[in-house]
Structures are given as C-alpha cells and as structure tokens.
Amino acid sequence: SVDHIKVKGKLLNPIIAGKEPVYYLINKPKGYLSSRSDPQSRPLVTDLLPRDAPRVYPVGRLDFNTEGIIILTNDGELTNLITKAGAH
Predict the structure, then answer these.
(1) pLDDT tens digits for 16-31?
(2) Residue (of 79, 71, 68, 76) closest to 32 by Cα position
(3) C-alpha distances in Å from residue 41, one per residue of 36, 55, 64, 72
(4) How many other C-beta atoms lie within 10 A of the C-beta of residue 45?
(5) Which of 48, 45, 47, 50 is nearest to 60 (CA)?
(6) What's the rounded Cα separation, in Å, for the pair 27 and 17?
(7) CB of 71 closer than 8 Å to CB of 24
(8) pLDDT at 6
(9) pLDDT digits (tens, 9 = 90+) for 24-80
(10) Between 20 and 30 A from 21 (CA), which of 12, 53, 66, 80?
(11) The pLDDT value given to residue 35
(12) Do residues 28 and 70 make contact, with C-beta atoms less than 8 angstroms apart?
C-alpha cells in the first residue's frame, strides 16, 4: 500500500489492487500437465478452463499420468499457504 511499482513508467498498484481472486477446483484427468506452459505442447490443465477464464496458476503438481483434484487460482496468498503447508 506504500510502495509504488512501475513497469515502463506505468503504475501497477491499481491494476494489482483491482484484481479479483479466482478459484477453480478441477479433477485433472490423466494426460494433462499441471502447468501454464509446456515446450512439448502437451495438453495443459488450464486447457480445461473456459476460454474467457482469467489467468490462473495450478497450486501444486500432479504427474502427467496422474488424475486427481487440483486448485487453480490467481490468489498468491492462498498458493503460498497451501504450498508451504505441504513442505512440513
């Protein structure tokens, strides 16, 4: 709230502050990568979302040939909370 973050002279704070948190809970099928990108062009878990979905990131990882529940969100605070809890 006190810092000013700029990229190419444009203030990012209002953009970040106005971003609504989004949460998806998906049953990832086998054959999908739990990532935002893949140099091998394999199917991504984000491909399962609606086309107009906001940019979200998988929380944690499931193997390519594993199925199961995975959270996708743009909520960095929740992501940190969940991933740090799994490290203990």
Answers:
(1) 555 788 999 999 999 9
(2) 68
(3) 11, 18, 13, 20
(4) 22
(5) 45
(6) 30
(7) yes
(8) 76
(9) 999 999 999 999 999 999 999 999 999 988 889 999 889 999 999 999 998 888 888
(10) 66
(11) 92
(12) yes
Residue 21: its pLDDT value, please?
87
Catalytic residue among 3, 52, 63, 75: 63
Q: Please tell me the distance from the alpha carbon of residue 55 to that of residue 49, in angstroms, as a whole number.
A: 10
- 63 catalytic per annotation: yes
Locate 10 and state its tokens: 């444009």
Which residues, other chains included, contact 13 with Cβ-Cβ below 8 Å and sequence gap of 6+?
3, 4, 5
> b/e map of 51-86 (b: 16 or more CB within 10 Å)?
eeeeebbbbeebeeeeeeebbbbbbeeebeeeeeee
- Residue 84's nearest CA partner among 49, 76, 39, 47 is 76
Closest among 29, 27, 35, 31 to 69, alpha carbons compared:
27
Determine the Cα–Cα distance for residues 9 and 58; give it in Å rounded to an integer.
Answer: 30
